[in-house]
Every structure is written in C-alpha cells, then in structure tokens.
Amino acid sequence: MADYPITPLTPPLTEQEIIRRQKLQGLLDAGENPYLITHYPVSHRSQEILSNFDALENQTVCVAGRMMSRRIMGKASFAHLLDGQGEIQVYVRRDDVGEEAYAAFKQDDIGDIIGIKGKVFKTKSGEISIHAEEVTLLCKSLKVLPEKFHGLTDTDLRYRQRYVDTIVNPEVKDTFIKRSKIISAVREFLDGRGFLEVDTPVLQTVEIGAAAKPFRTHHNALDIDMLLRIETELYLKRLIVGGFEKVYEVGRIFRNEGMDATHNPEFTSVETYQAWVDYHDVMDMVEQMYEFVAIKALGTADVNYQGQVIHLQAPWKRMTMAEAVKEACGVDWTEWQTDEEARAEMEKRDIHVEKDARKGDCLAALFDEYVEATLIQPTFITDYPVEISPLAKRKPEDPRLTERFEFFITGHEMGNAFSELNDPIDQRRRFEEQVEQRKAQGVHAEIDEDFVNALEYGMPPTGGLGFGLDRMVMLLTDSPTIRDVLLFPTMKPM
C-alpha cells in the first residue's frame, strides 16, 4: 500500500494532523482502508430513536454519523454521534465488541465517521443511548474540528468553510433546513393557486437598460459574448403573451455589484406573472403568501427579527410614495413645476441625484432618504413615478405615476410589483429613454427588440411580482445578513 504524504509542502500540517495521517497509514498497512467502504446499513436516525424510545427499547438498530465527543473509561467508553437529525449517545464496551475492535475504537478520532450496531437502552442518568455490539470506521477525518463549546466563531472562516460551520454550529444547519421549508412553502402556495413553475435562460445576449450591471462571459461554440441574467422578468412575460395565464420561476440571478448585509452578487429571486389582474390583486397575494409561508415554516405569522416582533398577518399598511414622503419630510412633489426645481430641492437637502434627474427621480431620492428605513412593519408603498418604472403601466388618472408597488419590512425593500405595461409603443419609448440615460452615463445598453416584438402580438392585462427569496429567508430565520442564509456566499479568494 502506498504511503500517504505526512508532510506535504503546502499547506503546513499541525501536530494533530500529522498524527491522524500516521493513524491512517497504520490502517492502510493493516489492509483496512476506510475510504473504500461504500455502504453501511443505516436503519434509524438519531431523532427517530429519541422520539420512539418505547417502541425501540432493546431493539437492534444501526446508526452512522460523525463522532463529536468521547469519554474513555478503561474497558468502556461513551461517545456522541452526530447524524443528519442530531446527536445520540453510544456506549461501547470491550467485552461486547471484542478486544481488538475496542482497541481500534480508542484509536479513532473526534470527527471520524463511524457506524454503530447495537441495542437501544436508557442509562442510569436517563439518557437514551445505543449499547454497541459492532463499531465500524466509515471515514477517517484528517482535520481537527473546532473545539466543541466555542464552535467555529470566525465569521469569514464560517462562510468559507460552511461544511465545518454546519457540523459544529447546529443552529446554522437549522437555518438552512428552514430555508428549504420556506422555498417549499412558496412553491406550495403558488402551485395551489394554479401557477405553473417554469425555467427561463440564464445566459442571455441582450444587455437591457436596467440599472443592474451584468456579468459577462463568452460562448465559444457560437463565438459570441453573453451575459448572465439580472432578472427573469422579460422571458416570463413572453410566456404570458404565449397564452400561459399564471407562471412563476424560482431562479438564480447574477448582478455584478457591491456586497452588503442584503446584497450578494448571486442570489435567488421569485417572479410571478398572472393574466387578468392588476397590482391591487398582487398586493393581496403578497400578504396571503407571506402569512402562509411563515405559518408553514415557523408555525406563526408573528416573527421575531432582531429583537422586534413583525406581524405578517393581512392586511398590511398601504401608502403612496408621495404620501409617505410628504408625511416624512413635508415635501409635496406635485408642487414642483420643473425638473430644475426638483433638483434644487435635492441640493438644498444635500441629497445626491444625477445631473439630469427628473421630478420622479427626486421623489424617489426623498423616499430613500427619509422613509425606507422607518418602514418596520410590513408596508406597501404604491404609485411610483414613471421615470423609475420603465416596465409598469401608467395610472389612467395620473400618467406621471405607474401602478407599481414595493413592499418593505424591517426597513428594507423586500419585493417589487406592478400592473405590467402592455402597450408596445409606450414600452419602446421608455426603453429608448432608458438606453439613452445609460449611454449618457457611459454604460452600454440596448433595447430588447424581441420583447417589444412579443408585446406587439398582444399581452393581456397582467400583474407581475418579483421578490428576493434570500431576504424572505433572512426575515423568517432572524438572520441579520444575507450571507447567513446562503450556503456558499460569494467570497474573495484567500
């Protein structure tokens, strides 16, 4: 058997890591390679045994998992095994497993993955345990786990080595179990309303005029540059044109932008589109969905988030953007006669806007400055200016505004929706304005001609919604940063 390298050039090994490799070499020399084991007949998991002790007492079970602790007491030892459901204690005695097997068990290390066959019993102290009859080393761990009682506390290292984080910090694993339940509940809610889940392209060829900056790549076979998608919206609306009345996608989105507590370059969005409804109907759906998902995942619609109780039960508060701004800082945007007057107001308040900002841009800037952070309980902000809503339908009674809303919880924007613009002439005009603005800022942008072509075939009145799934998970798992709800957040290489 070939030797394992004990002292590779990189990375340098600790004393404990060298000892573990020496132990592995000893196993190999004895013809016992733990990495060649392909199957172990697991019959029960830890929580199944703990929850069903009366039925399983004195029954033989097979469990497998990672050894997290061990107390050697001469001819007998106690250990704790961690599997996918939690921990369970095992009792290993020399006279039961045999002298050779017991000696081998004592050579095993914390972190090794082992299998235990034995009978379920309860110790004198009342702890449900497994009395081992056989012990099998299933995988040798060459790394030392962080000390149990302090866990893995280096935040940067936790994100880089999530595989260690979920071993030693059980609450982290619980967060991702909840995340899975939340995603399932979102799908259950939408499927139950007759929505069809679909997939749309991640690789795209048109750089639309949206504010988000895309990642670029190159397709070798076609010899063309392509972009990773920054949204799923335009393809989903093509499907509404094509006769699908209710569609949604849970999709990965990529934006080449900065990172902070609520932003990661790679994230998951949910977008829904439904024919024959408007943004009022979508607001009703959002309220119902959040309440449904919270109850499914947590058992309650009252959510504790960073010391605050957030009430997700419908109805939520609804305000127009103009009302919210006027209430917060006293500015009535309808009194502005010109864009220059609006920009002067921004300069007076020391609020940065682009040099060609229009009245609608300035209203949105005031909202960002004075209102957003104050919206702790769920709130719909409606009727956004047309300047910042290129895909939303205008309000018939006030064409300066659109039938658009965003909803806010804990001072953060959680989602965006509108009555979808289905006028192809107006859509082209707004795309052209958006592209001109982006080019004036030195950014390449172009009109999605195929999408305009689709609208020219006719899209029925439609209500659309997009929201960040990761932010929903943050809220429902009391997580202060998006990195806490992404298994592998984007990190700079070490």
Quickly count the helices. 16
CATH class of the largest domain: Alpha Beta
> Within the largest sheet, what's the order of strands?
6-10-11-20-19-18-15-14
The structural class is alpha+beta
How are the SSEs placed, and which strands pair?
Layout: H1 15-29, H2 46-51, H3 53-56, E1 60-73, E2 76-82, E3 87-93, H4 94-97, H5 99-107, E4 113-122, E5 128-139, H6 155-160, H7 162-168, H8 170-192, E6 196-197, E7 203-204, E8 216-219, E9 224-228, H9 233-241, E10 246-254, E11 266-275, H10 279-298, E12 302-305, E13 308-311, E14 317-320, H11 321-329, H12 339-348, H13 359-370, E15 379-382, E16 394-395, E17 398-402, E18 404-409, E19 412-419, H14 424-440, H15 449-457, E20 462-468, H16 469-476
Parallel strand pairs: 3-5, 6-10, 14-15
Antiparallel strand pairs: 1-2, 1-4, 2-3, 4-5, 7-9, 8-9, 10-11, 11-20, 12-13, 15-18, 16-17, 18-19, 19-20
Helix pairs in contact: 7-8, 8-10, 8-16, 9-15, 11-13, 12-13, 14-15
